[in-house]
Amino acid sequence: MKRPGARREHVGRKALRWPVMVLALVLAASAPAHKPSDSYLGLRIVDAAIEGQWDIALRDLDYVLGLDDNQDGAITWGELRAHHGDIVAYALSRLALVADGRPCPLRVTEHLVDDHSDGAYAVLRFVASCPHPPERLEATYRLLFDVDPQHRGLLRLERAGATQSAIFSASNPTLRFDLAEPSRWRQFGDYVAHGVWHIWAGFDHLLFLLSLLLPAVLVRAHGTWEPAERFGQAFWEVFKVVTAFTLAHSVTLSLAALGVVALPSRWVESAIAASVVLAALNNLVPVAIERRWTIAFAFGLIHGFGFASVLIDLGLPKDSLLLALVAFNLGVEIGQLAVVGAFLPLAWALRRRWAYRRGLLVLGSLAIIAIASIWLVERALDVKLIS
């Protein structure tokens, strides 16, 4: 005899399965294998001149300008040199500097290429000529916003030994600085914003954390996942996971940013992708059930090197490095706690539903494994599986 509601539950399972599988395929096809699109703009004010260096990812320039003329998947120096004029015209039309209300015309002086943690970048060195030594500077940045609203411009501004940092975004393309009185509090807030943005835009970090959090409102009993009965039990599990992850990545973030330990970027990015696969796989084939915090700590050490790449790419001077470390790490924790704060109440409310225990946990973990496996192959072999 069928139990009441069996047919309805069976139909519900079939109805849910296909949307989740389709969502998984969409995510796998669209999630980026590398960190989000950033460019690095350094400005150094010397009297009435502003010396600048602008590092823009070749992959971004190729997307908007088509640098790979022979379409072989590799941009040579010859191809890049042939497009110097196009790059200058494109970049300078999307950057404006105004000192004390008067424009400072920009002139490119040198073209270079440099390697960042996520690939090769075109480097434009330029000079902006201002009418007189500026006391207030306004910078407007509109690079790539029309084709990639998630793009960010990371700014480092130096004057008289003081350094300020800020982020350009599609919603905040114009920044203003009072150069006469640089604020340490503003610097601190800017680095906090860097940290928050990095954790929210870092899909690999988020999927790793999500893989560890999904079973937090469940308990393993008789070979299956069952809903937890006490909220305190779930809260304590989340607390241990988040704390372990925080402690671990704080250690390696500091060591890497201070130059004590350096690992090849491809190794780090590949290991981060592998950590996401293993964390999600543990939900399907549980190995570390009661001690998920050990997984968070072990792989958190690797994720710390990934976090440090942002600060290293900024090329921060040593007198601002300690401030940057503290503020950036605080920003990462704020972004992380925001994710946990949104996830835990919702997961607790849904934990008894089949859609959570069999749908979101199982199919969600499978989707995460699929996405992270693509990242792992692309990063380890330096290939592009999905364009």
> Oligomer, anyone?
single chain
Helix content: 40-55%
Distance between the termini: 52 Å
Uncertain runs with pLDDT below 50, 5 residues or more?
1-31
How many helices? The count is 11
- What series of H and E elements makes up the topology? HEEHHHEEEEEEEEHHEEHHHHH
Total strands: 12
- Number of structural units classed as domains: 2
* Radius of gyration using CA atoms only: 24 Å
Beta-strand proportion: 15-25%
Q: Strand order across the biggest sheet? A: 5-6-2-1-8-9
Average pLDDT reading: 83
Alpha-beta content class: alpha+beta
Overall form? globular
Report the major sheet.
6 strands, mixed
Description of the structure:
With 387 residues, this protein is of the alpha+beta class. It has 2 domains: 16-34 and 202-381; 40-190, no CATH class. Helix content is 53%, strand content 21%. The chain has 11 helices and 12 strands. The chain has helices at 6-30, 58-65, 77-82, 84-92, 184-201, 203-213, 231-257, 265-284, 292-314, 321-350, 354-381, and strands at 38-46, 49-57, 95-99, 102-103, 106-116, 119-129, 136-141, 152-159, 162-168, 174-178, 218-221, 224-227. It has a 6-stranded mixed beta sheet. A 4-stranded antiparallel beta sheet has the order 4-3-7-10, with no helix packed on it. Strands 11-12 form a two-stranded antiparallel ribbon. The longest helix is centred in the last third of the chain and has 30 residues, at 321-350. The N and C termini lie far apart (52 Å). Residues 1-31 have low confidence and may be disordered.
